[in-house]
Amino acid sequence: MDDRMLRRRVYGGDHDDPDPGPRPGHRYGELVGGPLDGLLLDVTGWSARRLAEEARLPTEIGRYGPGGRTHYRRRPGDPDHWDWSGDSR
């Protein structure tokens, strides 16, 4: 991992964690657009089928607030980036 990646915050990490960045030996995708823009999604151990599916991530900062989800899809031709596709309840 390069220095830029090490300074990034991982989705789902504890906000009080003194080291919220990526962990060695894990695989990450960068979330692009939407409420989680710039966060890293830990996809370590995900199957090819799971990687092809839309990630529906719980978040309080999306369009629907608490209880809402924001959706990201892996970018075709650039699997290290996941593009925002909308929010839902």
Oligomer: single chain
Number of helices: 2
Number of strands: 5
Give, in order, the helices and strands.
Answer: HEEHEEE
Helical percentage: 10-25%
Give the C-alpha Rg: 13 Å
Termini Cα gap: 35 Å
Mean pLDDT: 90
Question: Based on helices, strands and strand pairing, what is the structural class?
Answer: mainly beta
Any low-confidence stretches, pLDDT <50, length ≥5? none
Overall spatial form: globular
Biggest sheet strand order reads 2-1-5-4-3
How big a fraction of the residues is strand?
Answer: 25-35%
Main beta sheet strand tally, sense and closure = 5 strands, mixed
Task: Describe this protein with a few key phrases.
globular, 10% helix, mainly beta, single chain, 89 residues, 5-stranded mixed beta sheet
